[in-house]
Amino acid sequence: MRSISSRFLPATARLLVVAALLGWSVSLVLFRLYLGHDRLGYGLLWNLFLAALPLLWSSAFRRAVARKNWSWASVSFVLWILFLPNAPYLLTDLIHLNPKPNVPEWYILAMLLSCAATGTLIGYISLMEVHASIERKFGFTAGWLLALGSLMGCGFGIYLGRFLRWNSWDAFTHPLLFARTVIGQFVDAGPHPHPIPVTLIFGGGLLIGYVVLRVLMTPTDNQM
C-alpha cells in the first residue's frame, strides 16, 4: 500500500468532518433528551466527548513530531493511546437498543448507530494521523505495527469499559488498582468473559475496518 502521508486529509477538512459527525450525533441525542430524560442520553453525550479526545492528542502528537519536540510528543502519544479506546467504545452502546417511553425504537436505533459510526470514524481519523507521523519518521512497517497494536489495545479497552466499567481516567486516578484489575482478569475473569477473545474479536474487527478504509483511500491507476 502507498504511504498514507501523501493523501491524508488536510487539517481543515478533518476539522469539518469531525464537526459534522459530532454535530449530527449530538443533535440526535439532544432531541432524545428533549423527548424524555434518561441516563442513556447523558451517557452518550459524555461518550461522544471522550471519543473526540484522541483526535486532540493525535493532533498534538503530529505537531510535536513535526517540531521535533520529543518530550511533548511522548506525552501526547501516551495520552492518545489511553484515550483512543473511547472512540470505538461507542459501538458497544448499541446494547442499549430498548424501547423507551415517548421515543420510537427506530429513532433510538438511528441515534445509537450515528454515535457508534461517529466514534469509530473519529478513532480512525485519529489513528491515521498518528500512523502517518510514525510512518514518515520510522517507516512503513513501524506505522502498521502501531496500527495493529493500537487497535488491539482498543479491543482490550472496550473489554475494560463494557464489562469492568473502567475508563481512561482510572489509569490516572487509581493506577495501582487499575493495574491489579487488568492483570487479575487474565488469571481469573470471574463472572465476565475472558479478555482475550473479546479483545481479538473487537480488535480484529476494528483492524479489518481500518484496512478497508485504507484500501478505499488508495487511488486507482486512472486516478494517479
Topology, element by element:
Elements: H1 11-35, H2 39-66, H3 70-83, H4 105-138, H5 140-162, H6 170-173, H7 175-187, H8 195-217
What features would you describe in this structure?
The chain is mainly α and 224 residues long. The radius of gyration is 18 Å and the shape is globular. The two termini are 14 Å apart. The longest helix has 34 residues, at 105-138. It is built from 8 helices and no strands. Residues 1-7 have low confidence and may be disordered.
Descriptors:
single chain, 224 residues, mainly alpha, 8 helices, 73% helix
Terminal CA distance reads 14 Å
Number of domains: 1
- Shape verdict: globular
Give the helix tally. 8
Radius of gyration from the CA trace? Answer: 18 Å
Order of helix and strand elements from N to C terminus: HHHHHHHH
Class computed from helices, strands and strand pairing:
mainly alpha
- Mean pLDDT over the full residue set: 88
Q: Ranges with pLDDT <50 over ≥5 residues?
A: 1-7
Measured by DSSP, the beta-strand proportion falls in under 5%
Helical fraction equals: over 70%
Q: Give the number of DSSP strands.
A: 0
- Please outline the major beta sheet: none
Summarize this structure briefly:
The chain has eight helices and no strands. With 224 residues, the protein is an all-alpha fold.
